[in-house]
Structure formats: structure tokens, C-alpha cells
Structure of Ankyrin:
Amino acid sequence: MQPELVVEKWYDMEGRNIEGHTPLLHAIKQYEPHAVKSIKAFIQAGAEIHAIDKEGQGALHCALASPGGVQLCFSAVPETMLDWWAPESARAVDGFSGYYHWCAQKYDTENEDYAKHYSDEGLEPYPLLYSDVAENDEDGALAKNQLVIDHIYCKDNWNDEHLIRNPIQVLKKGLRFKILALLKAGYDPNLLDRNGRSPSHYAERDGLWPQWSWALINSGFMLDEESGRWVKASP
């Protein structure tokens, strides 16, 4: 998707595809490097941020729904299980090595052309949890502004080994900025889907609470313990 082309050609920002996704909802569900740029472009072009799809999911629900083929990686599933669930094209080599190579290829995680859209400069550290966690952080890892992306070796379908950025970490970092863009545009983080589930429910279910809370806190929200709702922090 080229967001400039969509906007310049006067595509209907509220038009729907077969899944009931507007251009904005479609962009939100993407995990390629250009996703955040597309989201920002469509919001600036006047896209309705609170649109919902045929499943009754809003933008944040769509953002927190793990991308196809990597759901298990986003949750706390042992890597030894990945071989059972990996896409067929990732099974040409043993174990999860081929899985990571497949993921890096599918989601283009080595592409740094859009790096400026994923800059942590001026934002709170990752993972931003709560003060009692930060106080017990002996090695100072929470003081780092950048989410550390590990480099790993993996094999392709010809058993050639490559050193790449961990694609799951790259995807999780990208997710933070998709959420951040929506929240800064005024999206309500407490909206429920058709089944009465909040984005917080999705984040907890899929092991994405650190990404979710980081974006919320960097958008000026805090969790009201009594109501369980995210509210704007007082200036």
C-alpha cells in the first residue's frame, strides 16, 4: 500500500473492502514497515478513527490482533512448539529457525526505510510498566529509550544461515507505534468490541500488555484502578 497514492487519488477514506475494513483499518492490520506511515497519512486525510469492521472490532482491537502466522510468537509459547504451527513454507528447515526466516521475509523486518516512524526519541523507556518494577531494575535496562532488537541466526529454505534482527521483536516494536498514532489522534482506549471486550482484554490475551501500556502512558493515559478504565492523566 502506498498511502500517498491512496490519498492523492481521492480514494474514499470510508470505503470498505470485503472484510468491512476502511483503508485505515486495513493499514492498522498490516505489519510491514510502512504501516505506521499509512496510518498517519489516512488519519491526516480525515479517516474516521472509530470505524468498526464486520466483526465489530475497532481500530485498536484490529491493531492488537496478532498478525497471521505469528500469533504464537506474540504469546508466551515455547519456541519448541513453533515447528508444529509454522506455515508450511517455514518447515523446509528444522525447528523455529525456518520460522523466523519466514517471518522476516513475509513482514520485511530488515527494511529500515521507515525507521523515522519508529523513533523512541523523547518517549518513555520500554518496557514502561509501573514504578515498583522500575525501582527493582538492578541493571538499568528500563532506562534505555530504545527497545533492544536482538540479532539472531536463522536458516532459509536452502539451509543457508543468515544473521537478522529478531522479527518478532521488530513486529512488537512496530505495534507500539501503531497504537500510539491512534491514541494521539483521539481514539478512546476503552471502547468495547461487539463481544464486550476492550483493547486491554486483547493485549492481555495475546501477551502484548507491555506494548499496550507503553503507548497509553506515552499518550498521557493512566489506568484508574477502581474503574479499570484508562483515563487522561492530569497535567
Notes: DSSP finds eleven helices and four strands in the chain.
